[in-house]
Design goal:
mainly beta; SH3 type barrels; Porin; 12-stranded antiparallel β-barrel; 10-stranded antiparallel β-sheet; 22 strands; 9% helix
């Protein structure tokens, strides 16, 4: 393969693509349909959302929403603005509301009623049924959850559309983001897809596409196992396609009502194909941090971020770094404004003229459910 000097690299013709109009017409139609679906679903649940529980914490904070489950000393509350919130039962001062739960004790006896926090001890629980008040110690409770809770309530999702400003090509671009998650008692799964399209008269069209999926299984003592499968395409980095699969073990470093910080480490495999023709597969390791934080008093702000470091065991000078930080402000029910910063770094790009670092700032408007 012949080498290109810098002059030849500057003089090469700009890439042109004919796909953007067709692609974005389809994406726009999909977006409109999804917004309509979310609006209908939100209206159907409006009557159910009128009745709320209020959880008062010992530190003075207050959370409004629907109590969905109490298990293992953790109270789960579903809120309109901040989604699902987990609170330690020992941090609850009192409860207000009327959500009826199915309560199962460790002796297999069961009750249907509302929960109350007993003042006699931080672990005491009272179950108010239609006929009586039952008082138990927290260690006797096996599970309390909402009656006939449909599985669809465990799903969360969102879609966003916006304008981005990128450093690598210094051009404006359109962006589309889709995300979904499912929360079960012992595991959590999520997937997201983000695409960015840039076009100008000099450099032609440019694409960046990212698909990220993960599965997280709870383990004892705040540990967890996670599997991650990701794909990426980035014209700015001359990356045609990258596939990587990683398995990792992690731990909750911070786990409070408003903040979760996780650390993880593991191994995996990666395959990369570049525009230069370079195509290779390799083993890689992964080290990372993940952060989720929200405002409890008025749950209209949420912060999410992650930083993942991928060194190659066979070449200590070859590694990549992927970071993302997102801030969401709820404007009204199911509608948010988001600001996201992302950075992709490759220590050894395929050619001397390729950029190592591609970062951007994305402003978007979206809906969630």
């Amino acid at each position: 393969m012949s080498k290109r000097n810098s002059c030849e690299g500057d003089a090469r013709p700009a890439k042109t693509r004919t796909r953007p109009g067709r692609v974005f017409r389809r994406l726009s139609a999909f977006l409109c349909g999804l917004v309509l679906l979310v609006s209908v679903a939100g209206s159907a649940r409006a009557e159910q959302a009128k009745k709320k529980d209020v959880v008062y914490l010992v530190n003075g904070d207050r959370i409004s929403g629907e109590i969905t489950r109490l298990q293992g000393g953790i109270l789960h509350i579903k809120t309109e603005m901040a989604g699902n919130i987990q609170v330690k039962w020992s941090n609850v001062e009192r409860l207000e509301g009327g959500t009826v739960l199915q309560v199962t004790l460790n002796d297999e006896s069961s009750y249907q009623g509302t929960l109350e926090k007993e003042a006699s001890g931080e672990g005491a629980i009272a179950i108010r049924t239609a006929d009586e008040m039952v008082r138990i110690d927290a260690d006797r409770l096996e599970l309390a959850e909402t009656l006939n809770k449909p599985p669809v309530d465990r799903f969360k999702g969102g879609v966003s559309f916006g304008l981005s400003i990128l450093k690598a090509k210094d051009k404006r671009q359109l962006s589309l983001g889709l995300n979904g998650s499912y929360t079960a008692d012992s595991y959590y799964a999520e997937a997201s897809y983000n695409t960015f399209y840039t076009n100008d008269s000099v450099a032609g069209s440019n694409y960046r596409d990212y698909l990220n999926t993960s599965y997280q299984r709870k383990l004892p003592r705040d540990w967890f196992f996670t599997g991650m499968f990701n794909t990426a395409r980035n014209d700015a980095l001359e990356l045609d396609i990258r596939y990587n699969f990683n398995g990792a073990v992690g731990k909750d470093i911070i786990s409070t009502e408003s903040t979760t910080l996780q650390a993880l480490g593991g191994v995996g495999v990666v395959r990369e194909k570049y525009e230069s023709g370079e195509d290779h597969s390799d083993f890689e390791t992964v080290l990372g941090l993940k952060l989720k934080a929200m405002e409890l008093d008025s749950p209209k702000l949420s912060l999410n971020g992650e930083a993942l470091f991928y060194p190659r065991p066979g070449d200590i000078n070859r590694f990549r770094i992927e970071t993302r930080t997102g801030l969401n402000l709820m404007l009204m029910k199911n509608v948010f404004w988001g600001l996201t910063f992302f950075d992709s770094y490759n220590s050894k790009p395929p050619s001397a003229g390729a950029v190592k670092n591609d970062y951007g700032l994305v402003s978007s408007l979206g809906v969630n459910w």
